[in-house]
Amino acid sequence: MDSAQRIALGSIAVGLLVLGLKAAAFWLTGSVALYSDAVESVVNVAAAIAAFLAVRLSAVPPDREHPYGHHKAEYISAVVEGALIIVAAVAILNEAWGAFRNPREIDLTPLGVGANVAASVVNGLWCLVLFRRGRALRSPALVADGKHLLTDVVSSAGVLVGVGLVALTGLHWLDPALACLVALNVLWSGAQLVRTSVGGLMDEAADPQTVERIRAVIAANGDGAIEAHDLRTRHAGRLTFLDFHLVVPGDMKVTDAHEICDRIERALHEIDDDMVVTIHVEPDDKAKHAGIVVL
């Protein structure tokens, strides 16, 4: 089991702990807002399980049916997580509507509030771990899980402030109103997560800064070639796929052209070891006089 899988497995354990704490907070207080917080934690657990399965599947080596590997499984996990977030928001809105129609008393016991605060602290600390390790491992599933938890931390803080206002003012309608705000925040985060993940599934290109670095590396390490054009990039999990055409003199030996390609690939792997590079060598009559001029 690699590092990404261990972290994903840890998310399941953390999710179950936080769910238990938030469920206890709702049971002790009867607050609909705290109920909304607990429901979001149910989604956290389901999403953590989906992330673990996706990270595990993405680590499977390429096979005959999947010669490019299984890395996009992580994007599928993130889409599933976004869908689960939307389901949670609908459940929260349904409960909030019931509370609007039939207002209920809430009991802000120190134990109930303390359980919710403890859950938020645990979530916040684990969120930092997911962001740091997810970006280091270039795992979309772990980063998506971290973004989801960050939303949970922010909404939990808002819930605690709102519940405190209910206790101070006696305005019980604030409790379901706050739950509705949490649901809208959850919906927004779910929509953003799905949008980002669909971009990965649709072979979204690398960011402009990365593309510029790639172009600079090719220009600086392509001595002997004439130009490079038709450069394309796409992401698949932690891998970046890159292909381009490299124009060389028509009378150049195959071994010399191959040496140029190897030199460029080595330089590209120095900036990103998870880059898969494909170079199509062409003679000088194929030059487009556009793209990357080799210095």
TrEMBL record:
Subcellular location(s): the record lists: Membrane
Q: Which InterPro entries match?
A: Cation_efflux (IPR002524), Cation_efflux_CTD (IPR027470), Cation_efflux_CTD_sf (IPR036837), Cation_efflux_TM (IPR058533), Cation_efflux_TMD_sf (IPR027469), CDF_Transporter (IPR050291)
Cellular component (GO) terms are: plasma membrane
Q: Where is the Cation efflux protein transmembrane domain?
A: 11-202
Keywords associated with the record: Membrane, Transmembrane, Transmembrane helix, Transport
Q: Where is the Cation efflux protein cytoplasmic domain?
A: 207-283
Main localization category: membrane
Q: Which GO terms describe its molecular function?
A: cadmium ion transmembrane transporter activity; ferrous iron transmembrane transporter activity; zinc efflux antiporter activity
Kindly list the residue ranges recorded as spanning the membrane: 7-29, 41-61, 73-93, 113-132, 153-174
Topology versus the membrane, per the UniProt entry? Multi-pass membrane protein
- Domain of life of the native organism: Bacteria
Q: Write out the GO biological process terms.
A: intracellular zinc ion homeostasis
Similarity comment: Belongs to the cation diffusion facilitator (CDF) transporter (TC 2.A.4) family.
PANTHER family given in the database record:
MITOCHONDRIAL METAL TRANSPORTER 1-RELATED
Name of the protein in its database record: Cation diffusion facilitator family transporter
What organism is recorded for this protein? Answer: Chenggangzhangella methanolivorans
Record lineage: Bacteria, Pseudomonadati, Pseudomonadota, Alphaproteobacteria, Hyphomicrobiales
